[in-house]
């Protein structure tokens, strides 16, 4: 049973669900996916209607609205909370995912695009929204958005605040009293060592009714000219310098090592600042083999057909989980040459640390190429791994399960809202100010820019990993 909101009660859940459905059907009559979502999530809403609880008003604040796994997770969970009968507003700096928010039938409020973290203009805007919309709970994703919500609506207006952290480290900038949701068990254990607020774990959720083995990948293969006898490897990722680049370069190099022995194709689906350099590296590989081995076609807001078309998926985070939901065999990548086949023997590892890892930073892509070759040569094993992955994701990472956990967390936060302390507000302000000074220091910015250009120069044609400063 979900908490009856003590602060403001505006509508019954049944009336809210009816009103939302009417508005959504009028505005998005052609959005068949939205209809599917409400059907699959309807049980949550019916449970709330049966218990007679009241609707909450929740403001969800993703860290940005560019295409990325954590942002999509935030929107999917927001839609699940709305389908359970609550009123949800998504607030964020405009980006490509605004259309995805609208497809989910959620109300969107654009944030002011000031670059500073925290941003005074957004602090004021969120506080005004909390007052005008009678917000009961603010759910922010990552530490910058958390501070935007904390210093106005949280600290001054006493609106309960919850912060989800899906990055791969515990941020020290979040005030110690703010309740946290971490994306992995290992990170939650680490957070509890220093954080006095409550800490929960919700792994990245996957809509297993939307991402299924029945998705057809034939159109994707036809679109990119992938022959039936070609072995297609797919990676869906932001083409970013931080976190992603090591895995992307090693993927290209591993395929390069194998393309002389197998009819192999790699498609890197995504966009970002490293795209031009990765395209140049891919062109070198393509010229060497005198055929199109590596392709970078850009980003796709709905990459399900790419996963379904793949004989093998390589990647990390939510992208890896979506591949498993569609029953594709998977190699999980990370940084510093990390890669492991997802299989029963590695399942517990990924439950603890998330679908990501760090290794020894070995030169070259030999480890990844050997793992890929194992799976290329064993179609029966690939099929078994696909079935195992689908089963595990359905049991452990389903969106409905995550939504139930998140609604329970909302109950707990609202039942025992934390007391904000002035000293912790000062501590977080000092840390974030120091970071902003560093980030906006012109000398450091030039040094960072030079370092990134040196890395990208190596991506274009050099050996990997780069040896910087030489």
From TrEMBL:
Top-level taxon: Bacteria
PANTHER family, A to Z: SULFOQUINOVOSYL TRANSFERASE SQD2
Source lineage: Bacteria, Pseudomonadati, Pseudomonadota, Alphaproteobacteria, Hyphomicrobiales
Keywords, alphabetical: Plasmid, Transferase
An annotated Gene Ontology molecular function: glycosyltransferase activity
Pfam family, one: Glyco_transf_4
Domain Glycosyltransferase subfamily 4-like N-terminal: residue ranges: 67-165
Name of the protein in its database record: Glycosyltransferase family 4 protein
Source species: Sinorhizobium mexicanum
């Amino acid at each position: 049973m979900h908490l009856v909101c003590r602060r403001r009660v505006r509508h019954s859940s049944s009336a809210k669900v009816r009103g939302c459905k009417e508005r959504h059907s009028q505005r998005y009559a052609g959005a068949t996916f939205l209809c599917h979502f409400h059907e699959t999530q309807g049980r949550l809403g019916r449970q709330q209607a049966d218990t007679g609880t009241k609707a909450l008003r929740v403001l969800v604040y993703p860290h940005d609205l560019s295409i990325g796994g954590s942002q999509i997770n935030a929107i999917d969970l927001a839609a699940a909370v709305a389908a359970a009968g609550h009123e949800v507003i998504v607030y964020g700096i405009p980006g490509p995912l605004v259309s995805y928010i609208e497809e989910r039938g959620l109300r969107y409020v654009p944030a002011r695009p000031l670059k500073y973290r925290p941003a005074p203009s957004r602090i004021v805007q969120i506080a005004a929204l909390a007052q005008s919309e009678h917000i009961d709970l603010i759910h922010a994703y990552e530490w910058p958005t958390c501070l935007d919500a904390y210093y106005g609506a949280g600290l001054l207006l006493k609106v309960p605040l919850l912060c989800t952290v899906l990055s791969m480290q515990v941020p020290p900038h979040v005030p110690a009293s703010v309740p946290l949701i971490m994306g992995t068990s290992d990170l939650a254990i680490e957070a509890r060592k220093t954080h006095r607020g409550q800490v929960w774990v919700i792994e990245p959720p996957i809509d297993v009714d939307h991402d299924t083995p029945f998705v057809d990948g034939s159109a994707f293969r036809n679109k990119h000219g992938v022959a039936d006898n070609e072995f297609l490897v797919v990676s869906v990722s932001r083409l970013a310098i931080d976190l992603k680049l090591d895995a992307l370069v090693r993927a290209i190099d591993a395929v390069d090592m194998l393309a002389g022995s197998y009819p192999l194709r790699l498609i890197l689906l995504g966009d970002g600042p490293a795209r031009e350099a990765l395209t140049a590296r891919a062109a070198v590989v393509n010229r060497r083999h005198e055929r199109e081995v590596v392709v970078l076609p850009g980003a796709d807001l709905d990459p399900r057909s790419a996963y379904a078309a793949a004989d093998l998926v390589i990647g990390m985070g939510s992208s890896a989980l979506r591949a498993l939901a569609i029953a594709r065999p998977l190699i999980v990548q990370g940084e510093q040459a990390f890669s492991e086949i997802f299989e029963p023997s590695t399942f517990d590892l990924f439950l603890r640390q998330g679908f990501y890892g760090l290794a020894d930073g070995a030169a070259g892509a030999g480890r990844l190429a050997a793992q890929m070759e194992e799976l290329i040569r064993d179609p029966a094993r690939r099929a078994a791994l696909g079935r195992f992955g689908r089963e595990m994701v359905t049991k452990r990472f389903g969106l409905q399960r995550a939504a139930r956990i998140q609604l329970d967390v909302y109950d707990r936060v609202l039942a025992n809202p934390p007391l904000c302390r002035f000293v912790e507000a000062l501590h977080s302000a000092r840390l974030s100010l120091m970071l902003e000074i560093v980030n906006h220091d012109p000398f450091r910015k030039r040094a960072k820019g030079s370092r990134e250009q040196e890395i990208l120069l190596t991506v274009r044609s050099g050996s990997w990993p780069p040896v910087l400063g030489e």
